[in-house]
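Ticket #4471: structure output looks truncated?

Reporter: J.K.
Steps to reproduce: submitted the chain below (518 residues) through the standard prediction queue, then opened the result file.
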Amino acid sequence: MGRNCRRRFTVAGIIALSLACSSPKPPETQTKPATTSAGLPPNSWVVPVNVTNSNSPSQTDWLNFAWQSFVAVNWPALAPTSTDMAQPDTSKAPGATAPNGAAIPTVWLLYRDLATTMLQGAANPGAWQSGMTPPPSGCPANSLPVAPGFQPMILDMVSKFSKFPSEIQQATNNPLVDQQGWYVTFDVRLDQSEYTYIQQNGYYNAQNQINAVQGSGLAKFPKTGQESYFNPPLPAYAQYGALEVKAAWRVLVPGVDIPGRYFTQAGYFLQPDGVTCVGPFTFGLIGLHILRLTETTGGTWFWSTFEQVDNVTVPSGINRPNGTPLTPSLAQPNTPNGNCTSSYNIAPPAVTGNVPFDGQNAPVNVCQVNYPIPSNVQQVNQTWQTQLQGTPFAYYQLNNTINPAPSPSPQSTPGFSYFPPINDPNNTVQTNTLANTSMETYFQEPGQDCLSCHGYGQPDGAPQPLTGTNQVFTFLLSNADTAPGAAAAVRAKRLITLPLDRFPHRQVMKTAPPRKTR
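Returned output as attached by the reporter:
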């Protein structure tokens, strides 16, 4: 979950509406997702408002809550309209395809993203359903199928106004290159509860955040989606608390990758300069974080992370379309997961401009430090993967969750003293180790988890050091701009850096990685 742990706040201009694009003969992968015949519980498209047995949930309850949330946000969505967006299509099952063979976008893909939430000049981002925009007019013509009523996905690594340079980089400020030489790309989105909370309270304007913090305090983030400050009320299908997702995508290469083992979307890659568009590609989902706030999670929030099962290990006896044996997408064969050495997880340098997005870059050999997945998590994974047989989501697994510790629990550990309010004997979490190889490649050490980074989440103007009243666990608020002509906001220019000496396996390359040779 370590998003934006290392940040230097700078002001970026608005992306030009007319974009100049180029396309270096990308692989136009025809996708054909698996048949949809999920054997799931009734109404699995409903995002659960809270964990089962909320008065005294077991750890298994929390693991199932993660999967229930994963299935619901990955439910096929109805095409957006002028009044509704991110509504599940209850007539379909996960992984459903349109008549043209395209995978129907999921509910979370219809969430708002940073680019349409925090705008230059603190402009009001508007109604929830106003956030869907077509690809920039200069992008190459799309030759890949897209579900009717939807647009090709745009991985627009920068927002129209963002203090952060690029979403091609992980929390450690380094990118990831898969074994086929393609940069992994990232996507962050927020649900209707959280978006409406920001929009109605005016928190897209940094000065409004500062005024709130210096006054009666920031309004409480939504826990149910039914809060009285939602006026008008949210639609029934959107009535759940604040929820964010962060996704990791990789380009699927024809003949090499097996599209049926991925949830896929046709789309484009927008370079960090905000004007160079490359594509179209078929992207495969390889990682998904889910961050949630509910009535039960309160002072710790809830964190879960999923990966595509082929990221660092693969089953034997499976061949690629070209006849060669399947190998991991992020690791070389025979990587010693669980016994990683300094030869693995070597980070390329931070991206400082456009990247050669052409599949010719030096791969990062990823080793999973926290291996294997805990046995209780594996058992829950098997149950849900069985229920999802026949869909691409059967090829995803939960790594683990971070949640309020079941009480009593001998494995409950207090949080870290430098991340209040987690350092509270009444707010303990059940583990202090959690990482995703596709999004925290260089941040996998035991004792590091989502809170190690998101403990820095705060509104603009938050007094230092952070306390439980000004820590919000999300970095979205820190992206807000100020209105033109407004008095300069007195904001600490925070540079959040990770204690790199605590990560013995992380070695940053001092020079640009070599180009990949085939």
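Triage note (M.O.): checked the attachment and the full token line is present. The helical segments are 59-73, 192-201, 206-214, 375-387, 450-454.
Status: closed, working as intended.
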